[in-house]
Prior knowledge:
Blueprint: H1 20-41, H2 48-54, H3 69-92, H4 99-116, H5 124-129, H6 137-163, H7 173-194, H8 198-210
Helix pairs in contact: 1-3, 3-4, 3-6, 4-6, 4-8, 6-7, 7-8
Amino acid sequence: MGNSPFIDTKKQRGRPKKSAEENEENRQSLIYSALSLLTQKGFGVTGLDEITKNAGLPKGSFYAYYGSKEVFGLAVLESYSNYIHKMLDRYLLNESRSPLDRIDDFISQACANMIRYDFTRGSLIGNIGQEVNALPSTYRTEMTNVINGWQKKVENCLLDAQQNGDIKPDINCAEKADLFWTGWEGAILKAKIEQLPDPLENFKKSFRKSLKN
């Protein structure tokens, strides 16, 4: 793990900053570049030079935009979290669909996204989770907050299903939401390994079935 781009925080000189607008554009380009690479390969095998090059920025310019690797990594996590939050809201708050169908719709879209990238991209949270012991403690705290936020949205959707009479009133929606994210991360990993959508489809069916118990 010594080559992880998010452990060594030794600063290097970068090119002089330009306009505030250009700086922000370049910061966002670095984040998008990292999201693309880290969902494929994880932290340990991805270097800052590769992230910078993928963003179309000069080698060694990273520290002109971010003060440390840890700050950058947390910014990448935040961006990924916001993306999933928006995706969850798009489907789980869709009142034209039943609450349980909304969850299925989210899974189907995530599956389509994996197919779009030929199963080369997985879950950033899943990748980080495998390396978290080698990362600063702030990552563990941030990941916990991220997952809890996503979990709450699924819980609220299940509560809607409960109010509609779609699931039994004695089902613990918080526990089921926790089960959802535990199983979901595993299904994404398995789909990426097998390069098939089957694990995601099987998870969708299994989770729906678990709500009948």
